[in-house]
Design brief:
This protein has helices spanning about 5-20, 45-50, 65-75, 135-140, 145, 160-195, 205-215; strands at about 60, 65, 80, 85-90, 100-105, 110, 115-120, 125, 155-160, 200, 220-230. The chain has about 230 residues and is an alpha+beta fold. Helix 2 crosses helix 6 and helix 3 crosses helix 6.
């Protein structure tokens, strides 16, 4: 015959009773507290997420080509081989990767002032030979804070919607491509924070004017502008 431990029986009863009286919302659904978040003091991903802010004031200290390289990779560089081929830094529906990445340079050590397109397959950039287009990019936005700042680099994310809509039709246009742009821009913003840089996202601009300023291919639609620099 197995005898129950009276102390354990009482403890179990108390726990059972307490569990029945957890706080509830007004509709009677039970609210369960999650474990406390512990942020690492090292510059890991959790630290970058915690510290990330939209920084709109910069000092005119030049960035470096190494920083530009790292930010391009974080936004859309190659990582590991996957089922559909080379996997990249952001998730993409069907592994189609419709996004393109540019940087407008006006004060980066190792790069002339120009517009550059990222070639993720070779991890390199191609100059568009347009000269310094920072002023032209500022003019097409509705961001007053951007107009007033001296920024060394501005990243621009564009999309060729046809790459995704050919397979996924309207859902690709309305859902998948915007999801991918959001994931990619967050990667870039978090990497900027990890590098000790400031960054924020601009969506208020004239599409056609930005396309003209950057001499984009007609298949590409500009989606996001991300100024990056040394925070003031």
């Amino acid at each position: 015959m197995v005898m129950a431990n009276p102390k354990r029986t009482v403890l179990f009863t108390v726990v059972l009773i307490c569990s029945c009286f957890r706080p509830t919302d007004g509709d009677g659904k039970r609210r369960i507290s999650l474990p406390e978040i512990i942020i690492s003091e090292e510059r890991g991903v959790d630290n970058a997420i915690f510290r990330r802010r939209s920084v709109r004031q910069f000092v005119k200290d030049p960035l470096t080509i190494e920083q530009i390289s790292t930010l391009f990779w974080a936004a859309g560089g190659a990582t590991v081989d996957g089922v559909t081929g080379a996997t990249r830094a952001y998730p993409s529906a069907g592994g189609l990767y419709p996004l393109h990445f540019y940087v407008v340079v006006s004060g980066v050590e190792g790069l002339d002032n120009d517009v550059y397109k990222y070639d993720w397959k070779n991890h390199s950039v191609m100059s568009k030979n347009l000269g310094d287009r920072m002023g032209a990019v500022k003019e097409v936005t509705y961001s007053n804070s951007f107009l007033k700042q001296d920024v060394s680099a501005v990243f621009v994310i564009t999309a060729d919607y046809s790459i995704t809509t050919e397979r996924y039709s309207r859902r690709g246009e309305k859902r998948y491509v915007p999801m991918e742009a959001g994931a990619s821009s967050q990667n870039l913003a978090l990497k900027a924070e990890a590098l000790g840089l400031g960054c924020y996202v601009i969506g208020a601009f004239e599409d056609w004017a930005l396309s003209s300023a950057l001499d984009l291919d007609k298949e590409e639609t500009p989606l996001l502008i991300l100024p990056v620099g040394n925070a003031r």
